């Protein structure tokens, strides 16, 4: 999630001022609805939502006009893919409270990626973490609540 998506409209679907377009992403367990922004008469843009798993979802471009029913203008598939941020979030969630497992941060210290890359990865990991499916009893300290 959190990437810019551009939608190119066909000639007959060009943006009119009184039409509102939005995208509906339908996955196996989650549905997202996102607004769009008109870039020009033939293009829309939105930000892809964060999702709870890596899968291909159905995306419907819908159009709404006051006093008229909502129309599905087009449908397509969209793939949420696994990346290093998703892997890192999964790893951190699985290893909560395990001091040995968290030594991977030493790798970052040794490899010394540029600060901007670390900041970007941090933002992506935080986004991925927000969308993980975690058990209700999960917490950042892990099972051992006596850790300080």
Features:
148 residues; alpha+beta; 2 domains; four-stranded antiparallel sheet; 7 strands; 24% helix; transferase; kinase; kinase activity
CATH topology of the largest domain: Immunoglobulin-like
Instruction: List low-pLDDT spans.
Output: none
Largest pleated sheet? 4 strands, antiparallel
Gyration radius from CA atoms, angstroms: 20 Å
How much helical structure, as a percent, in the residues?
Answer: 10-25%
* CATH secondary-structure class of the largest domain: Mainly Beta
Give the second-level CATH assignment, the architecture of the largest domain: Sandwich
Question: Can you tell me the overall shape?
Answer: elongated
Helix-strand sequence = EEEEEEEHHH
Please describe what this structure looks like.
- The protein has 148 residues and is α+β, with helices and mostly antiparallel strands.
- The protein has 2 domains: 4-80, Immunoglobulin-like (Sandwich); 84-130, no CATH class.
- It has helices spanning 84-94, 104-111, 115-130; strands spanning 4-8, 19-26, 31-35, 37-40, 43-47, 56-65, 71-79.
- The strands form 2 sheets. It has a 4-stranded antiparallel sheet with strand order 3-2-6-7, with no helix packed on it. A 3-stranded antiparallel sheet has the order 1-5-4, with no helix packed on it.
- Helix 1 packs across helix 3 (115-130).
- It starts with a strand and ends in an 18-residue tail after the last helix.
- Keywords: Kinase, Transferase.
- One of its GO terms (biological process) is regulation of Rho protein signal transduction.
- InterPro entries: Rho_GEF (IPR051632).
- One of its GO terms (molecular function) is kinase activity.
């Amino acid at each position: 999630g959190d990437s810019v998506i551009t939608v190119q409209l066909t000639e007959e679907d060009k943006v009119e001022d009184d039409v509102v377009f939005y995208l509906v992403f339908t996955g196996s367990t989650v549905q997202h609805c996102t607004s769009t922004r008109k870039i020009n008469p033939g293009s829309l843009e939105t930000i892809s939502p964060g999702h709870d798993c890596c899968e291909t979802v159905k995306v419907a471009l819908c159009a709404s006009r006051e006093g008229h029913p909502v129309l599905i203008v087009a449908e397509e598939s969209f793939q949420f893919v696994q990346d290093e941020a998703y892997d890192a979030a999964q790893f951190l969630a699985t290893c909560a409270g395990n001091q040995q497992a968290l030594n991977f941060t030493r790798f970052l210290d040794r490899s010394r990626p540029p600060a901007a890359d670390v900041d970007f990865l941090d933002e992506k990991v935080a986004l991925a973490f927000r969308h993980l499916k975690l058990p209700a009893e999960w917490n950042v300290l892990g099972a051992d609540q006596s850790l300080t």
